[in-house]
Amino acid sequence: MLHVDPRMRKEALGERVRAAMGRTAAGVVVISTHGPAGRGGITVSSFCSVSLDPPSALACIRRDSSTLRLIVENGVFAANVLADNQADIAAAFASPTTAHEDRFTQGVWLDEGAGGPTLTGAVAHFDCRLAQTTEFGSHTIIIGEIVEALSHPARPLVYAERGFHRLPEA
User: Fold this and answer.
1) Where do the structural domains in the chain lie, given as residue ranges?
2) pTM score > 0.85 for this model?
3) CA distances in angstroms from 81 to 12, 112, 118, 129, listed in the order given
4) CATH topology of domain 27-160
């Protein structure tokens, strides 16, 4: 049985969840899109595989995000898994006050992918066709059918304890 300190019970559940989730580690991913609606991107830490048949992945994005609107209108996105030397890019794409085009001044981006701009030097990227969206709470879950996936020799950037970290060498 989990013991909860009585002092913690006074905190709102949301704050306790935020603190507990902050103890978990996650990869850092920039979700990008391009198409008739425009180019945009956002940093997320909620990205994972859904299925290999069909190959698919999901990401969670705040419902009020301008990037989410672009992804839905364009019908495509790319997931760029950041390398451990790309924390500045993660920060730029996480800032809600930075304009989309200004975000892309960080790093070298190629607009050749089927899903969205892909970041040179990233650990991996996945080009996706938007297959489904589901709203839950403050976020929209986007599910993409993966149409291309590439990985590159680099170490991943990790987000934990409200900060970016490098993994120790294996």
Assistant:
1) 27-160
2) yes
3) 33, 17, 10, 17
4) Pnp Oxidase; Chain A (2.30.110)
Residue linked to tokens 């990985």: 151
Contact 51, 127 (CB under 8 A): no
DSSP calls for the chain: -----TTGGGS-HHHHHHHHHTTS-EE-EEEEE-STT--EEEEES-EEEEEETTEEEEEEEETT-HHHHHHHHH-EEEEEE-BTT-HHHHHHHH-TTS-HHHHTTSS-EE--SSSS-EETT-SEEEEEEEEEEEEETTEEEEEEEEEEEEE-S-PBEEEETTEEEEPPP-
Q: How many residues make up the chain in this entry?
A: 170
pLDDT tens-digit map of 131-161: 999 999 999 999 999 999 999 999 999 888 8
Of 81, 74, 69, nearest to 116 by C-alpha is 74
